[in-house]
From TrEMBL:
Disulfide bond keyword on record: no
Subunit annotation: Homodimer.
Recorded family membership: Belongs to the NAD(P)-dependent epimerase/dehydratase family.
Reaction equations catalysed: UDP-alpha-D-glucuronate = UDP-alpha-D-galacturonate
Membrane topology: Multi-pass membrane protein
Keyword Mitochondrion part of the UniProt annotation: no
Domain NAD-dependent epimerase/dehydratase: 100-337
Signal peptide: none
Pfam families named in the record: Epimerase (PF01370)
EC number: 5.1.3.6
Membrane-crossing residue ranges in chain numbering: 39-57
Protein name: UDP-glucuronate 4-epimerase
Length: 437
């Protein structure tokens, strides 16, 4: 029975196999005349149809709560009113303003970058899928914030080529700030396909549309410090090896850097990858330690503090969001034009990678001490061994390249930045009805 089922399951997806298994009936023509064989044959067909109906039908009808199927959601876009909104949001107000498509605009970094661009007079159009990797109501609140400053966020997926093409038809974007991605290191073990969907397939779809656009935009995108993986040489410099990723997330970001190289090489797209080091601040991401430590300390819940082998310190080069935003804007401003047109390369184009960090790693236990002082609550610390499921022991950026070429100079220490984060956190979640889950 179960063997038969799996055979039937294979029919639609392996037509070759289907043909092969049909052939015995064709060759046994002699037996065809026996009515007994005829009866057996038609009973078999009848049974097969019933089995197909009962076992295929439910599997082709995905349940909406299946996280790997989230990408199949459909969005409403198009129409004259929608196009008008798109155009007006993307129009620069200042004379030398650029027109930027910001993907992941309802995300943490995307919101801050979009607001900063709009503030200085650039045109900004957001694109975001509002997926539920973390509380979507926080993304909606960021959307409302951007809407007040005149930034429209189109709701859609970066892997939707038809939507991307439409956006480039409506607006001749000069730049793309690509921040949409599946972030998070440990979640990759739970939902690996979401990383492939957004960080690989989505990136390729975006670059395909960019290379065909006329004019081609210059692209700045978020890679990650996680590409340094198991590298032990510190501080991390751009030339260091990045071929030992410790998580699928890191592997997809590394793949993104290689894909960027290809599109630069073949199509003349101007591409700049930014390796962010643990970005934190107001409107931050609830899946990151500084954020859920704050929530759990306030709740009186114990917080896990990881320790490496031999009581080794786990440390992060925490980088404040305003410093990251300055780095992003500087990367956009120094990006040279793409050189191709109509999908053809005309000459060599710019290809860059920069670390954007803070250059001062802080042990995670110090992060907790700072939070205790700011929240005026003692944390219940639970020391645990660092699991080998993606997180590395420490990160430390060498930023001299970004300093030299982008004028990047981070100026916010962890104490100062966390103070701003905690102030935002308390005001955002005050009242209780919005209490972090
Ligand atoms: N925050 C950090 O510490 C950090 C560190 C290194 C790299 N990065 C990278 O920086 C970028 C921004 O990170 P963030 O912290 O703002 O994360 P975030 O999750 O807050 O923002 C990403 C946004 O992209 C959207 N998105 C995801 N997949 C999408 C898809 N297929 N189509 C359309 N939208 C999609 C999400 O809804 C989300 O709003 C990401 O590429 C991330 O990998 C962040
Ligand atoms: C992304 O889009 C392409 C082309 O539209 C599609 O073939 C592919 O299945 C999509 N990939 C994922 C992982 O969703
Ligand atoms: C930092 O990177 C630069 C290259 O940008 C390199 O010359 C320098 O030696 C690096 N510094 C350290 C301490 O590794």
């Amino acid at each position: 029975m179960s063997k038969q089922m799996s055979h039937l399951d294979n029919i639609p997806s392996t037509p070759g196999k289907f043909k092969m298994e049909k052939s015995p009936f064709v060759h046994n023509r002699l037996r065809w005349h026996s009515s007994l064989a005829k009866l057996a044959f038609w009973s078999f067909i009848f049974l097969a149809l019933i089995l197909i109906f009962f076992f295929r039908y439910p599997s082709s009808n995905p349940l909406p709560q299946d996280p790997s199927r989230r990408s199949l959601r459909t969005y409403n876009w198009g129409g004259p009113a929608w196009e008008k909104r798109v155009r007006s949001s993307a129009r620069a107000r200042s004379r030398n303003g650029i027109s930027v498509l910001v993907t992941g605009a309802a995300g943490f970094v995307g919101t801050h970058v979009s607001a900063a661009l709009k503030r200085r007079g650039d045109g900004v159009l957001g694109l975001d899928s509002f997926n539920d990797y973390y509380d979507p109501s926080l993304k909606r609140a960021r959307q409302a914030l951007l809407e007040r400053s005149g930034v429209f966020i189109v709701e859609g997926d970066i892997n939707d080529s038809a939507l991307l093409k439409k956006l480039f038809e409506v607006v001749a974007f000069t730049h793309v700030m690509h921040l949409a991605a599946q972030a998070g290191v440990r979640y990759a073990m739970e939902n690996p396909s979401s990383y492939v969907h957004s960080n690989i397939a989505g990136l390729v779809s975006l670059l395909e549309v960019c290379k065909s656009a006329n004019p081609q935009p210059a692209i700045v995108w978020a890679s990650s410090s996680s590409v340094y993986g198991l590298n032990t040489k510190v501080p991390f410099s751009e030339k260091d090896r990045t071929d030992q990723p410790a998580s699928l997330y890191a592997a997809t970001k590394k793949a993104g850097e290689e894909i960027a190289h290809t599109y630069n090489h073949i199509y003349g797209l101007s591409l700049t990858g930014l390796r962010f080091f643990t970005v934190y601040g107001p409107w931050g991401r609830p899946d990151m330690a500084y954020f859920f430590f704050t929530r759990d300390i306030l709740k009186g819940k114990s917080i896990p503090i990881f320790e490496a082998a031999n009581h080794g310190t786990v440390a992060r080069d925490f980088t404040y969001i305003d410093d990251i935003v300055k780095g992003c804007l500087a990367a956009l401003d120094t990006a040279e034009k793409s050189t191709g047109s109509g999908g053809k390369k005309k000459g060599p184009a710019q290809l860059r990678v920069y670390n954007l960090g803070n250059t001062s790693p802080v042990p995670v236990s110090d992060l907790v001490s700072i939070l205790e002082r700011l929240l005026k609550v003692n944390a219940k610390r639970k020391i645990m061994k660092l699991p080998r499921n993606g997180d590395v022991q420490f990160t430390h950026a060498n930023i001299s390249l970004a300093q030299r070429e982008l004028g990047y100079k981070p100026s916010t220490d962890l104490q100062t930045g966390l103070k701003k984060f905690v102030r935002w956190y308390l005001s955002y979640y005050s009242g209780g009805e919005k209490a972090a889950s």
